[in-house]
Amino acid sequence: MMNIGEFAELTGLSVKALRLYDEQGLLPPASVDEWSRHRRYSAAQFESALRLKAARSADLPLAEAPKLLQDPETAAATLAVHRARLTAERERQDAALAALDQLLAGAVEWQIEVRQADEQHWAGVILPPEVTDDEHANELFAGLWRRLSAAGNAPTGAYWTTIRATEGSETETEVMCCWPVAELPPADWDDVRRGTIEPGKEMVVRWRFERDVPVIDGAVHPAVLALLAAVESGGVNVSLADVRQIGLLEDGAPVGVEVAVRLQP
User: Fold this and answer.
1) Residue 252: how many CB atoms within 10 A of its CB?
2) So what's the pLDDT on residue 131?
3) Cα(57)–Cα(51) distance, rounded to whole angstroms?
4) Is 3 left (phi over 0), alpha (psi -120 to 50) or beta?
């Protein structure tokens, strides 16, 4: 039998960690002195201690540690889930480091144009906050397209998204998915937003998906930021809701995005 200090030295676990594992019921000592309350550990506990030490070094959440001490199948499944989580995190970090390399190498040059645009009616729906992936967003676009088409008001061009402030909030934003239409949808379509973009000049920048640019996780595409910076440098005031991200399609397949903002004096 060993005291807690000796057991800690042999397993690489700190005394503090051993006390925590005792409190959590993960690795209780083999015995506790009735009078001194000193913990004693046995060599039979080495394997459990080493599993916990390895889990600690691998940043496995403490709440999942008990599963590593169960049957082999449960332990293996727990390890597989954590390994996949770590792989995803490493990929995210690698992407962030690559983006930093590009940013440090110098600013990306964007070709920004100004064009004359016609009046455009539109119909849109708000993307629910819980929807964060492209697949569900595409389903929302498709559902609105089917509804408009069934009403004899099929979209007249490429879809777009726009970000705007959530009504009644100064800190939250929402994404609206829109289709250009020939006529405004009926007023009794309560769940569908509608509006008209007045004719006038607009500033535009485009990018294709294959272009290698420093995209930062959680931030909008750098082309959008470049467009907003160009608008601001020109002394024009626009709101975020004026910025439209329009899908670029070739043979019906998305190949890139066009960002446009109507210029207002």
Assistant:
1) 5
2) 62
3) 10
4) beta
